[in-house]
Amino acid sequence: MPTETVLVLGATGKTGRRILPRLRLHGTAVRAASRTSPTPFDWSAPSGWDVALAGAAAVYIVAPPTTGPAHEFVARAEAAGVQRLVLLSGRGADTWGDSPFGLDMRDAEAAVRGSSLDWTILRPNNFNQNFDEDVFHAPLLSGELALPAGEVPEPFIDIEDVADVAAAVLTQPGRHTGMTYELSGPRAITFEESCELIARASGESITYKQVSPEEYAAILVEQGLGEDTAHHVAAMFVMMEQGLVTGAAAATDGVATVLGRPPRTFEDYVVRTAATGAWQR
């Protein structure tokens, strides 16, 4: 059985909390780290990083929300004897140009690539689970999802596939060194189609409305987000409409390359999630 320790940052987050049981089932020793975990970790508190890193052979990293900290963290990881880094980034991060969106992820990628450690970068599309666990959920419950997404389709990926890929990479030393995996679902769909599928499976009336980036930022501010954060999120949709985030909205073979099977479909996600009552009003 594997004896090395894997440090999972963001252990209570969307990907981290799914990766942990996969690693444990594999027999891997894990150290869960987050602001609320037994092993505390906060990107704004570097004084606690060395304790989290001590004795870890590999680290799963979710990029910090600002530029800069990833470089110091990677240097600390090298000094602590870490051997491998697996970074969660975003689809097509090197095609985002000078957009203010994703500077944190691109900075983290530069830190990882510039290290002397074995590294692998995971770049998923938007998660299916954003429709029931995150930013799109509340609007769906209100009956209307308003976004500045345009007509460019998105090959949404099931976060369970992302967790499967991350766990595989973390438990297969040497097989994925220096690789950047673009991860997507099997086909691209528009936000309007995603709403139609959710409406049909849930039996609820749900529509999609196209709004401008400025209108969307205002909606987010009304929901309680700060203005800078709201405009940052809106900038992502501007890039999506331009086809930059999704790489021309093409599906990739990243999941199949790592796992030897195709990714889960959006329809499969919708059926599973509708059964939980997540979209019932």
UniProtKB/TrEMBL annotation:
It comes from the Bacteria. Signal peptide: none annotated. Residues 10-173 form the NAD(P)-binding domain. SUPFAM superfamilies: NAD(P)-binding Rossmann-fold domains (SSF51735). This is NAD(P)H-binding protein.
